[in-house]
């Protein structure tokens, strides 16, 4: 990837080479930080003891994105974990500690390329759970790969051996399972992202079955993380559970589950309402910049609209 640091001094200033840092890290419950990588390079601004005049300057640079990185993600208010990547540009000044030098931080969104249009994710999936002579629950989806913003059409067929009528007897859930394991923390959680309940009204006399279709929308949630070593895994599944009352025995629950993949490509065709879920995924093209200590520096920000060929700019006004 390529980018540029733009400096516009308000007056003549002496400077050292500009330092550009690129890093990635995993943060676990705001208690532990694990570095994925760290790189830095110096951008020369001139020969000898360079001096910048009060006019715009542009200093190009290149940076390499390492392979096999997990997607950037943030669980929002849950603060379960987050993966972030960022570029930091420091305008190094002579005889000034780095902490006091003008600095800009730019979040970079990296998404693992998971194409859900591949044949692996395009085939119909089906699973069933049978209890001989009692009940059969069959769960199916048209494909196993989806992206954020899509709707999953879930089909459930319940077959019983006799008439069965019960309110809210069938529950269909979209489940997210998160597993985090580090030297200091071990977290396993299961989150119900969407849940629909249905009545069963199986009365026969010749066909003791009922077919139900449920629409589950995938909203703000991180993509599937399949294999980031042993540190982090995020999996998704559809769960159908049916409660069967029997006058001669205690109530029983039949559960069937189907794994699905939440990928990153292609993008959703419809806008996603971020207010309906607290989980957040930051997409490429968003840029935010900050300055630590120099109140005289006017910091600006831009948005990049070309996701496929990201060209980043970082601005200083000094």
Descriptive overview:
Belongs to the arrestin family. PalF/RIM8 subfamily. The structure is a single chain. The protein is mainly beta. It has two domains: 2-111 and 283-317, Immunoglobulin-like; 119-263, Immunoglobulin-like (Sandwich). It has one helix and 20 strands. Strands 12, 14, 15, 17, 18 and 19 form a six-stranded mixed β-sheet that branches. Strands 3, 4, 7, 8 and 9 form a five-stranded antiparallel β-sheet that branches. The two termini are 26 Å apart. The relative contact order is 0.21.
Q: Compute the gyration radius: what is it?
A: 27 Å
Alpha-carbon distance between the two ends: 26 Å
Residue stretches low in confidence (pLDDT < 50, at least 5 long) are 274-314
| Category from helices, strands and their pairing | mainly beta
Topology order in helix (H) and strand (E) letters: EEEEEEEEEHEEEEEEEEEEE
What's the story with the biggest beta sheet?
6 strands, mixed
Helical fraction equals under 10%
| Overall average pLDDT | 82
SSE layout and pairings?
Elements: E1 2-8, E2 13-14, E3 18-28, E4 32-43, E5 51-52, E6 57-62, E7 73-74, E8 81-91, E9 103-107, H1 119-122, E10 125-131, E11 135-141, E12 145-147, E13 151-160, E14 164-181, E15 186-202, E16 209-217, E17 225-228, E18 232-246, E19 249-263, E20 311-317
Parallel strand pairs: 1-20, 12-19
Antiparallel strand pairs: 1-6, 2-5, 3-4, 3-8, 7-8, 8-9, 10-11, 11-13, 13-16, 14-15, 14-18, 17-18, 18-19
Protein name: Arrestin C-terminal-like domain-containing protein
GO biological process, one term: ubiquitin-dependent endocytosis
GO molecular function, one term: protein-macromolecule adaptor activity
């Amino acid at each position: 990837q390529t980018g540029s640091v733009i400096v516009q001094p308000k007056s003549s200033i002496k400077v050292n080479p500009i330092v550009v840092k690129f890093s990635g890290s995993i943060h676990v419950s705001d208690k532990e930080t694990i570095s994925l990588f760290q790189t830095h390079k110096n951008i020369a601004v001139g020969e000898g003891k360079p001096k910048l005049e009060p006019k715009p300057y542009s200093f190009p640079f290149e940076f390499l994105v390492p392979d096999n990185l997990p997607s950037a993600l943030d669980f929002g208010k849950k603060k379960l974990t987050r993966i972030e990547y960022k570029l930091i540009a420091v305008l190094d000044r002579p005889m000034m500690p780095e902490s006091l030098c003008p600095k800009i931080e730019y979040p970079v969104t990296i998404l693992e390329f998971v194409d859900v249009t591949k044949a692996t994710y395009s085939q119909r999936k089906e699973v069933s759970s049978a209890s001989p002579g009692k009940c059969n629950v069959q769960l199916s989806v048209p494909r196993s790969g989806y992206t954020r913003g899509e709707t999953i059409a879930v089909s459930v067929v319940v077959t019983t051996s006799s008439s069965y009528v019960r309110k809210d007897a069938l529950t269909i859930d979209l489940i997210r399972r998160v597993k985090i394991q580090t030297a200091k923390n071990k977290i396993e959680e299961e989150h119900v992202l969407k849940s629909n309940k249905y009545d069963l009204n199986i009365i026969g006399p010749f066909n003791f079955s009922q077919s139900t279709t449920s629409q589950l929308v995938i909203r703000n949630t991180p993509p599937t993380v399949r294999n980031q070593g042993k540190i982090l895994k995020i999996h998704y599944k559809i769960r159908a559970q049916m409660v069967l009352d029997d006058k001669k025995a205690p109530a029983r629950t039949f559960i069937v589950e189907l794994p699905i993949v939440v990928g990153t490509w292609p993008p959703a065709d419809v806008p996603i309402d971020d207010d309906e879920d607290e989980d957040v995924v930051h997409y490429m093209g968003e840029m935010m910049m900050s300055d630590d200590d120099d109140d005289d520096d006017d910091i600006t920000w831009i948005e990049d609209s070309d996701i496929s060929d990201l060209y980043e700019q970082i601005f200083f006004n000094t």
